[in-house]
């Protein structure tokens, strides 16, 4: 009897936490569907409308949100692709060979994960102004490496380390070159890992706020900064802010649900495997 | 053959390093800037050596920011750890409910922190926000959440907790699932109580997982920017001006570039030292946990 009661209490506590975790998202949905004139009146009764979404997606507030959305897509994909191209060989090398300074190099890469962004942003801001990279895709892709590259290298390193070297050695004995062994044996085996880490890196790049805040102004601005602009003005437009916030979280949420199985390893940089 | 074998890893790592240097260069440049009095009002700066750092450390605002940052980081990391481990234990315990809820656990974590802060800002508005509306029946209708110094700090910590508790919970849950079952069976046979089992078995074995989460959360909270920027912008007064916000205000808003960078360099050094200490500790803990397990 007592045991049963404890069980009920535990489940109740769990549900309580999930109310706390999910209510803000549900509330944004409600807020985004409210007509502008009912925002501050009765709370849970209103006639839902898609006007908020229409306004946000239709540039009518002078905020080109669709373009910010496309910008986010372009710079996040760009950063992930570039990080994969240079990160995969580095991850493979550091997993397969112990060489002089390898651990230090890896730690340096990891340390970028914890570096305060503003340390590099301010010099980059000055530098970008001079080089004409300010508010450009190239400039954003370049700096988002700070987010995506360490993630990709560290996680892929742990995936490559989990493959036994015998597989590639067997391929070498069969007359494959080192390069073929990498591309035809090692790489296909870690493909699920590559897919998962790419999506996770994309989410991290998409969610970044500081870099676009300081290094873009209009042309290359992303959704995280763009969503904030609906809060400005004399009269904050709550329904538009809510709609913009929700639109901007759709891609990361969908991707996260598809790679759920791999999240633990990704989020902990391979320090925790599951 | 010999030299090729030793050279290959370097060749493979060079592209990543070059890209990294692309970031290291501005870092070095920033370090160099801090030796000058570089600002918008002084485009032709003089060399001032360590004057900027001296100014940082003698400025009262710096110590205030450092204090706020520590309060924020400790408060957020601690709450997330306790709450996250609790959620993980509850999810692990409750098989049916747990399996359903586990799927949606990650949702807040995947929302950009700045968006989370926007969401909470709307909910915490004193007169029209939903939180006060829900509190009204309890006689607490008019709480000025982000407009009082303590309230602003607690509110921003709450947003951090909302976003990142799932992170701790996910890692702790993975840890729980990887624990060996035999010690628990032995404890059950010996008739050990829940608390004894938790304190003597679960926690010590789980600790390496929890510690990874704590390290990540503590280091990340030390350099918090987006949540504060969107929720309070450092106010009211200086009550939530964490170090990265202070650096932003100095460098970008007041355009005292080198002074602002000095702030971030100091923060960077602190984070680095904290990382070294914690990572060292992590190794020790992992060895200890391995002893408990065997």
TrEMBL record, chain A:
Q: Which Pfam families does this entry report, sorted A to Z?
A: BPD_transp_1 (PF00528)
> How is this protein situated with respect to the membrane?
Multi-pass membrane protein
Mark the transmembrane ranges: 12-33, 68-93, 105-128, 140-160, 181-206, 238-259
Query: Quick one: a GO cellular component term?
Result: plasma membrane
InterPro entries per record:
BP-dep_ABC_trans_perm, MetI-like, MetI-like_sf
Which family, according to the similarity comment?
A: Belongs to the binding-protein-dependent transport system permease family.
Q: What is this protein called?
A: Multiple sugar transport system permease protein
Q: Which UniProt keywords apply?
A: Cell membrane, Membrane, Sugar transport, Transmembrane, Transmembrane helix, Transport
Species of the source: Streptomyces luteogriseus
Matching entries from SUPFAM superfamilies are given as: MetI-like
Its annotated compartments are:
Cell membrane
Annotated GO biological process: transmembrane transport
> Residue ranges of the ABC transmembrane type-1 domain?
69-259
TrEMBL record, chain B:
Q: How does it sit in the membrane?
A: Multi-pass membrane protein
Q: Which GO terms describe its cellular component?
A: plasma membrane
CDD domains, sorted: TM_PBP2 (cd06261)
Q: Where in the cell is it found?
A: Cell membrane
Q: Pfam family of this protein, just one?
A: BPD_transp_1
The ABC transmembrane type-1 domain sits at: 66-278
Transmembrane stretches, by residue range? 12-35, 70-92, 104-123, 161-180, 201-219, 257-279
Which keywords does this chain's UniProt record carry? Answer: Cell membrane, Membrane, Sugar transport, Transmembrane, Transmembrane helix, Transport
GO terms for biological process, alphabetical: transmembrane transport
Matches recorded under InterPro entries: MetI-like, MetI-like_sf
* Family in the record: Belongs to the binding-protein-dependent transport system permease family.
In its UniProt entry, what is this protein called? Answer: Multiple sugar transport system permease protein
What organism does this protein naturally occur in?
A: Streptomyces luteogriseus
């Amino acid at each position: 009897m007592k045991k049963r009661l404890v069980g009920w209490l535990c489940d109740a506590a769990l549900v309580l936490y999930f109310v706390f975790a999910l209510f803000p998202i549900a509330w944004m949905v409600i807020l985004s569907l409210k007509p502008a004139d009912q925002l501050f009146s009765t709370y849970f009764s209103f006639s839902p409308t898609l006007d908020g979404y229409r306004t946000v997606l239709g540039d009518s507030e002078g905020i080109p949100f669709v373009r910010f959305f496309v910008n986010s897509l372009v710079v996040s994909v760009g950063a992930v692709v570039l990080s994969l191209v240079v990160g995969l060989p580095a991850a493979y090398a550091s997993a397969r060979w112990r060489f002089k300074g390898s651990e230090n190099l890896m730690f340096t890469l990891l340390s970028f994960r914890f570096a305060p962004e503003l340390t590099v942003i301010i010099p980059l801001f000055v530098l970008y102004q001079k080089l004409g990279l300010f508010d450009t895709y190239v400039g954003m892709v370049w700096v988002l490496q700070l987010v995506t590259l360490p993630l990709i290298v560290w996680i892929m390193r742990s995936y490559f380390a989990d493959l036994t070297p015998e597989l590639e050695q067997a391929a070498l004995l069969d007359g494959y070159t080192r390069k073929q062994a990498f591309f035809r044996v090692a790489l296909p085996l870690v493909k699920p890992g590559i897919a998962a880490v790419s999506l996770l890196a994309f989410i991290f790049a998409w969610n970044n706020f500081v870099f676009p805040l300081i290094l873009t102004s209009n042309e290359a601005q992303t959704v995280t900064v763009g969503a904030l602009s609906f809060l400005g003005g004399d009269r904050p437009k709550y329904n538009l802010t809510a709609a913009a916030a929700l639109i901007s979280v759709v891609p990361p949420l969908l991707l996260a649900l598809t790679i759920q199985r791999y999240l633990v390893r990704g989020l902990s940089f391979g320090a925790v495997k599951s | 053959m010999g030299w090729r074998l030793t050279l290959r890893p370097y060749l493979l790592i060079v592209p990543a390093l070059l890209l990294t240097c692309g970031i290291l260069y501005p870092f070095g440049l920033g370090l160099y800037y801090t030796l000058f009095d570089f600002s918008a009002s002084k485009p032709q700066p003089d060399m001032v050596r360590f004057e900027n750092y001296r100014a940082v450390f003698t400025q009262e605002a710096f110590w205030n920011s450092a204090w706020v940052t520590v309060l924020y980081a400790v408060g957020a990391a601690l709450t997330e750890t306790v709450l996250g481990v609790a959620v993980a234990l509850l999810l692990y315990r409750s098989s049916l409910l747990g399996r359903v809820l586990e799927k949606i656990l990650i949702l807040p974590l995947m929302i950009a922190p700045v968006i989370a802060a926007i969401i909470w800002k709307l909910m915490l508005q004193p007169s029209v926000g939903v939180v006060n509306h829900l509190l009204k029946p309890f006689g607490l209708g008019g709480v000025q959440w982000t407009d009082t110094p303590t309230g602003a700090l607690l509110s921003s910590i709450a947003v951090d907790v909302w976003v990142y508790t799932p992170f701790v919970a996910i890692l702790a849950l993975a840890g729980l699932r990887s624990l060996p079952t035999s010690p628990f069976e032995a404890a059950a046979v010996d008739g050990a109580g829940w608390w004894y089992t938790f304190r003597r078995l679960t926690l010590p074995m789980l600790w390496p997982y929890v510690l990874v989460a704590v390290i990540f959360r503590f280091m990340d909270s030390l350099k918090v920017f987006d949540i504060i920027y969107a929720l309070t912008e450092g106010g009211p007064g200086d009550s939530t001006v964490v170090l990265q916000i202070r650096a932003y205000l100095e460098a970008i808003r007041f355009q005292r570039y080198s002074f602002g960078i000095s702030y971030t360099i100091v923060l960077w050094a602190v984070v680095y030292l904290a990382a070294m200490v914690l990572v060292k500790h992590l190794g020790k803990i992992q060895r200890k946990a391995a002893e408990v397990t065997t």
